[in-house]
Design brief:
By secondary structure, this protein is α/β, with parallel strands linked by helices. 38% of the residues lie in helices and 19% in strands. The protein is globular.
């Protein structure tokens, strides 16, 4: 296993694009990574983009975005495309993502992984590499009924404190999801523990990196 130090090329704040189809996607999949990066001494700049969500769910996500990136320079952007129908509005998805690409050049992108069973996630994963060609793009995983968990190749180890804080913050910021039968600390910590085993850490979040050029 090869370790890679994630740093901004300029030595200043690391810039991250976190993009999701639905409120809570980003935090479920990469909340521990964001919390860890926000604690680094050189700072963090985050562009947080969601493509769907009711007003209530977007209010939750707006609070969560700040809670999972404490101290970061945060810009949050919300859209109201039809949930579950992103393939039908592919052109609008592409325009939103290309609009972000025209105004923001991140060091790292956290977005859905290719092959995700959810059509909304899969559409974003398809468009992202067409708009961002020179950034590190990590495809995250979202546990769900479909049983589509990938075989990841990139890991971000989490401390016990970060992993448990992630689970606590998910409950705090997304009360609308408490009724879901899959929702809860057992799910989030269980997956993080499994991914930790795969990279010799206690806990971890896992990603798929399709292409990476080392210079």
């Amino acid at each position: 296993m090869i370790s890679w130090q994630l740093n901004a090329p300029t030595g200043g704040p690391l810039s991250v694009l976190a993009i999701g189809a639905h409120p809570d996607d980003i935090e479920i999949a990469a909340g521990g990574t964001l919390l860890s990066l926000a604690g680094r001494q050189h700072g963090l700049r985050v562009r947080y983009v969601l493509l769907t969500g009711t007003p209530e769910r977007q209010r939750e996500a707006r609070a969560a975005a700040r809670g999972f990136t404490p101290g970061a320079d945060l810009e949050a952007e919300f859209h109201d495309l039809p949930e579950g129908r992103l393939p039908a509005v592919w052109a609008q998805v592409k325009e939103i993502i290309e609009g972000v690409a025209r105004s923001f050049t991140p060091d790292l992108i956290l977005g859905p992984a290719p092959g995700d069973a959810h059509q909304d996630h899969r559409t974003i994963a398809e468009v992202l590499p067409t708009a961002f060609r020179d950034q590190v793009l990590l495809g995250y995983e979202v546990p769900k009924w479909d049983g589509d968990m990938p075989r990841p190749n990139t890991y971000f180890p989490l401390t016990d404190e970060i992993a448990r804080t992630k689970a606590e913050l998910l409950d705090e910021y997304y009360p609308s999801q408490h009724k879901r039968d899959w929702w809860g600390a057992e799910t989030f910590l269980g997956l993080a523990r499994l991914r930790g085993v795969e990279c010799r850490a206690r806990y971890a979040e896992a990603f798929t990196c399709t292409k990476l050029v080392i210079s």
